[in-house]
Amino acid sequence: MIEVEKKFILDDKDKRRLTKDASFLNERAFTDIYYDTEFFSLTSNNKWLRSRDGKFELKISLNDGISKLSEDQYDELEDEQKIREALNLPSNGNLANDLIKAEYFPFCTCRTTRRKYQKESFIIDFDTVDFQDFTYDIAEIELMVNGKSEIEEAIEKIMAFAKEQELTIVPVRGKVVEYLKRVKPDHYQALVDSGVVKSS
Description:
Strand content: 35-45%
Largest sheet: 8 strands, antiparallel
Oligomer: single chain
Structural class: alpha+beta
Number of domains: 1
CATH superfamily: Hypothetical Protein Pfu-838710-001
Shape: globular
Number of strands: 8
């Protein structure tokens, strides 16, 4: 399964409209630590390695051949062996230790409080992200699909739903890109130069 999503910045009226007649699913908090090399070899290739509450995940862009109707969609690897294979890391033991030996280092730590709702077939996440220096409020509307061939249709459904809900549809930076823009401009510029993010 692939999670197809679109990010939004919402005001209180938007949130009220979205949650009206929606089912509240849960609220949880988690801490993410993002890793890369000194030369940004992962993020500049649109690969995002993180540890979420101690469990490693690698997000790899699926956007080749998919129109730019929305921001990037990702395949999420959660199996440690698959992550090792994607990073060409030998199996020497502890993944965290092997990453350090291969010179992958943390560059961003954040704690997210997420409130999750369901409305029709859509999952809606309201995130408040704490970077210590600042907080960032962002929302995502998501659909699950079985394969890459269904991504475009899912994006179109999300966009139609957003228009029905009278949401403002503009490009929105993800939480880590927002952090880099505000706190680590050299890293942010490397992503602009590599075409991973659009300068704004």
